[in-house]
Amino acid sequence: MPRRTKQEQEQGFMRSFWDEVRMLQADYGAAVGLYAYPTERPSVWSFRLVFTPLIESAENPVGSAAVQFIFPTASNTPLAATLWVQAMKLTQVVIEANQVKRPVQLHRD
To answer: How far apart are CA 21 and CA 14, in angstroms?
Structure first.
């Protein structure tokens, strides 16, 4: 079986990133934005992945959430893979916020 090319790997990571963001948006009725800011270090960027609910706060207990990261880092991880990893982290932050803000329901037999 031939190895995947770098382009195919990048496309796979970008598709995974896209899938993660689309699922997060659909599950929580939100928009996810990606912002990039140049840092003081040449070639280094600060990225911010932001989750913003589209429904009123009374109906959405999660609120806004974000993850911020810089790229590149000392690891040789491609940008597309980093975006996917950070999208999964944002999903986890939103899930945890949702669990904390929702009342715990006790199940009795």
So the answer is: 11
Identify how many contiguous H helices and E strands the chain contains and give both numbers: 2, 3
- Is residue 68 within 8 A of residue 48, CB to CB? The reply is yes
Pick the more confident residue, 17 or 75: 17
Per-residue tokens: 52? 């913003």
* CB within 8 Å of 61: residues ≥ 6 apart: 98, 101, 102
Delimit the domains of the chain by residue range.
9-99
| Cα 102 → chain centroid | 21
Residues 88-109: pLDDT tens digits?
A: 999 999 998 888 766 544 444 4
According to CATH, what is the number of the domain 9-99?
Answer: 3.30.160
What's this model's pTM, rounded to 2 decimal places?
0.84
